[in-house]
Amino acid sequence: MTALLSVQGLSVSFSTYGRTVEVLKAVSLEVPQGAQVALVGESGSGKSVTMKVIMGLLAQPPARIHAGRIMFDGRDLLTLPERERVALRGTAMSMVFQDPMSSLNPVWTIEDQLTTILKYADRRLGRDRDRRGRRARVIEVLAQVRMRDPERVAQSFPIMLSGGMRQRVLIAMALLSEPRLLIADEPGTALDVTTQAQILKLLRDLVETQGLALLMITHNLGVVRETSNYVYVMNKGEIVEEGPTAGLFAAPRQQYTRDLIAAVPRLTGRVTS
Amino acid sequence: MSELAALSNSYQNWYRFSRNPTAVIGLLIVVLSLLAALLAPYITPFPDHVGAIVDFRNRHQPPSLEHWFGTDNVGRDILTRVIFGLRVSLMLAFVVLVIAVPFGTAMGLLAGYFGGWTEIVIMRLTDIALALPPLIMALAVAAVLEPSLMNAMLAIASLWWTWHTRLVYSMVRQIRALEYVEAAETLGASKTHILFREILPNCVSAIAVKTSLDAGFVILIGASLSFLGLGIQPPTPDLGTMVSDGASFLPDYWWESLLPGTAILFVALGFNLLGDGLRDLFDVEDVR
Amino acid sequence: MEFLGFLARRLAWSLLVLFGLSVVIFVIARVVPGDPARMALGPRASAEQVADLQEKLGLNLPLYQQYARFVGGLARGELGQSLLTERSVNLDIRTTFPATLELVLATVFIAFLFGVPLGVAAARWKDRWPDNLVRAFAIVAAVMPTFFIALLLQVLAGYVLQILPTTGQLPTGTEFEANITGLLIVDALLTGDLNVAFEAMRHLLLPALALSLATMGQVARITRASMIDVSRQDYIEAARAFGVPDRVRLFKYQLRPAFVPPLTIMGLEFASLIGGAFVVELIFSWPGMAAYGIRAITQKDLNAIMGVVMVSGLFFVMVNLLIDVLVGFVDPRIRIRGRRA
């Protein structure tokens, strides 16, 4: 079976002040339909750039894509006309942003922001939905991310919500147009450990019940274990190791992976001295 | 080593500054204006036209080789009077800022560093000054006293210091929160040491930027004041007065009003560009 | 509720500023000149005349009592008699202030109408030619003396092109009495006199434009800086990732949060705007408070001077309160937290 998302031999470099740095070196990874895949690496390993290229958010220049293909649903995103590229963004593939404090517009209500996104997504998909329909959908999605009082949350400004609630809003934002692929950028890192665990559980449940494909981007192997069944390890712009999550944790082949695993703070299990 | 570093640092600054075309233009204008004002009696073609000289045969002459800027309604050379007028404008800005900047800085340091009642009193005073247009204040003072350059300068300076107080105050508040000041405090450094050795040096670049920008604005206010007839009194040449006198002969004898007006614009522009250039150089953002 | 607290604090600030103003004005008018009565009557007046006027104005009382009388009058909205016209200063200001208000309102309107789009364009095309153009405009507008702009516009549009009237509020001989709101254009529209309204707008255009250029440049500059600041926020990137179109992102997502600094700067700049109005009114023979004030100043009419300065200060304070309310309306964070970020 072909994968929903398949990155093949992607190479990207950055040019600033006359210096060129290669940030991605022939990166290949696959996210099959309905699978939960993690891309893990330290900051600066190239995982964020990979995510931005997939979403089409990379500023070019200074970045330049040398080689590779990004196949999504049988089409190469890199050769797709800009209009069709934009049409996919936020609809077929969608993103959960990392920082709940800064990723919501402070001067508009949650409902306003979500309906605006929905309105233009609908327009791109040629879907006909009126104002009331959009509102109903927003409330529905807020309920899906287990908001206790979705009506009230919809009326709120971001500043009136807690960090955990805002992170849920960001997940709701990603789910609005029933995407097939969800890219999550370390959701919850800015939150406390308990809230983050809740967010991750919510995300996993949503992905499983709705049959979405998930690409989880993180530096934390604890998160990987919680949310994925297949994992790619990235270091200095290259995929250095990949494999089913359980197997990789049991028998890491690379020293780099072993170091990463050793660095995970233990959330569960007994305290070892 | 440290002297060498300081030297290369100032060289670097100059290099960065010289690569900024608007800043260099600003500096050129300011230097040219200052030179012209200082050397006015030696470089002007008709230095005696400064006074109440009347030469009716030569009145309203358009710009020519003899009179580059033309002559006014009593036949005086406008270029000469513009250069001497520049002198008055720059003098005004100089005196106002020499009073306002040190005083305002001192007040800002006091308010920011000591807090409490000192802060409340000083900062509320600046709030009040903010509500008074400097031009109207100067007008009112000119009205109750005599209209003169001295009174105008005093009136403007009496409001102007508050802008520097607000600037320095906010900087002191920011700097105080930094760790090295706290460290100096814990180590038992005296208050004067902290104020003058730790905090003040860090405000200098912002004050310099603001002072340069201010010079242009003070010149504008002084010109407005004399345009209204309440600043410098004739026959002392003044740019604002010249624009006002020439305005009654617009548009036929346009040079009598437009050229002195352009001169004001030119000097104010110079100080503004210089200030902008310094702002980029020192990387201080919040200065108006 | 925090917003009410915020407004209450700002109101207290306003009262303090007004109190301070009253002291400053009192000092200028009663303490600095020595003998106000002698000043008003001139050097040729007899000693008895001076003593009479001193008695009438209460100048023989101790200073603190004089101040108490002055503030008591202010609190009742009573600015005293003009020493020269013998009319009450209140009446004089009431008849001249609306024209100034109309000019200033039109000025602020024009400054924002053009300044904000200029700032948005400069931010949108940062470091490209629209940006350079807007920045050059802002600098030149800031350093152009207001009276020089006014003269240039008057000569250019009035005498050379002859497209707009250059003096007054209406053509001479027009019979129209503004007495509903006091604002000429508004009253003309309310009474359905479209001809007068049109003429009034034509007359307003040049002075308002002359007065607005400097503010327009400031608004453009601050809007640009603020827009660039906001464009770097995560929520703008997020809106892009969700396919919100450029236009919507620029105006809805970026401009609204970026709008508070230009509003605040407007409040601070307002004092110098009133100062500029003095010059512009004189050049365009605009029948406003400034022309009255200048006359009072040249004729040393102390009560009138105090009245004009006090009303200018009050105007400044009211505008700033209004801006505080607007700022809370634009940015819910201020409304909810009850303070500026």
Folded structure, characterized:
The complex is a heterotrimer of chains A (273), B (288) and C (341). Chain A has ten helices and ten strands. By secondary structure, chain A is an alpha/beta fold. Chain A has a domain at 103-178. The longest helix of chain A has 18 residues, at 193-210. The mean pLDDT of chain A is 81. In chain B, helix 4 packs antiparallel against helix 5 (116-130) and helix 4 (78-114) packs parallel to helix 7. Chain B starts with a helix and ends in a 6-residue tail after the last helix. The model of chain B has no long low-confidence stretch (mean pLDDT 81). Chain C folds into two domains: 2-75, no CATH class; 95-331, MetI-like (MetI-like fold, Orthogonal Bundle). Chain A binds chain C through residues 55, 57, 86-87, 89-91, 94-95, 97, 99, 102-108, 116-117, 120-121, 124, 157, 159-160, 170, 173, and chain C through 233-235, 237-245, 248, 252-253, 256-257, 330-333, 336-337.
Keywords:
heterotrimer; A: 273 residues; alpha/beta; 26% strand; globular; C: 341 residues; MetI-like fold; 0% strand
Radius of gyration of chain B: 22 Å
**Form type of chain C:** globular
Largest sheet of chain C: none
Number of strands of chain B: 0
Say which CATH homologous superfamily of the largest domain in chain C is assigned: MetI-like
User: Helical segment tally of chain B?
Assistant: 11
| Average of per-residue pLDDT values of chain B | 81
Radius of gyration of chain C: 24 Å
Task: Count structural domains of chain C.
Answer: 2
Helix/strand order of chain B:
HHHHHHHHHHH
CATH superfamily of chain B: MetI-like
Q: What is the class of chain B in the CATH system?
A: Mainly Alpha
Unreliable parts of chain C:
none
Which regions of chain B have little confidence, pLDDT < 50, spanning 5+ residues?
Answer: none
Helix amount of chain B, in percent?
A: over 70%
